[in-house]
Design a protein that fits this description.
187 residues; alpha/beta; Rossmann fold; 6 helices
Length: 187
């Protein structure tokens, strides 16, 4: 088994190269938090997102790189925005491979939710953001997923805690307590 110490970050670039036009802006925010010397946010980034590739041979090369990075990651940080569920290319593959092959937990970070996510369910509002590859694995309980807003403190906690040996309590519908959110200043 490979040494797993990284955070694999998946997001829907929506075919954009403009860093402000898609969920890539949240990926860049994570990198900025990590780069600041006066900030205690840190992660080992397993994945530098490669530009969209359409050539079949290049797609095979990119797929091999994604697989290699996933195999060396301790969890998948899935950035869930307005268009993530529309991705039919890399995000569904990354979710499937992370859960089915690598057996790593998923940190589902919702960009459109600013408050606490308590008692998530398949009928709660967050379910509207799930790509079908995630939805099916949540329903079948094949995945270990913690559901959090895309906020620095819950992200730090989840990145520091979840790995192939430590999955979220609650299985595919894991969450942090109201007390945790209060500690983080999120009401």
């Amino acid at each position: 088994m490979s040494y797993r110490n990284g955070t694999y970050i998946a997001f829907h670039a929506n075919g954009q190269t403009d860093p402000t036009a898609s969920d890539i802006k949240y990926y860049n925010l994570l990198k900025a938090w990590t780069a600041r010397e006066d900030d205690d946010f840190s992660l080992i980034n397993s994945h530098e997102k490669t530009a969209a590739v359409r050539d079949t041979s290049l797609k095979a090369t990119l797929r091999a790189r994604l697989v290699s990075r996933l195999k060396n990651s301790k969890h998948l940080l899935l950035i869930l925005g307005k268009t993530t569920k529309e991705d039919t290319d890399w995000v569904p593959f990354e979710i499937q491979y992370a859960i089915d092959e690598c057996k790593i937990p998923v940190i589902a970070a919702y960009t459109e939710i600013s408050g606490p996510i308590l008692n998530p369910s398949t009928t709660s509002p967050i379910a509207s953001y799930w790509p079908s590859s995630l939805r099916s694995r949540i329903i079948s309980k094949a995945a270990g997923v913690v559901h959090i807003p895309f906020k620095k403190e819950p992200l730090k906690a989840a990145i520091g805690h979840f790995n192939p040996e430590t999955f979220p309590k609650g299985g595919s519908l894991g969450w942090y307590t109201k007390e945790s959110y209060t500690t983080w200043g999120i009401e």
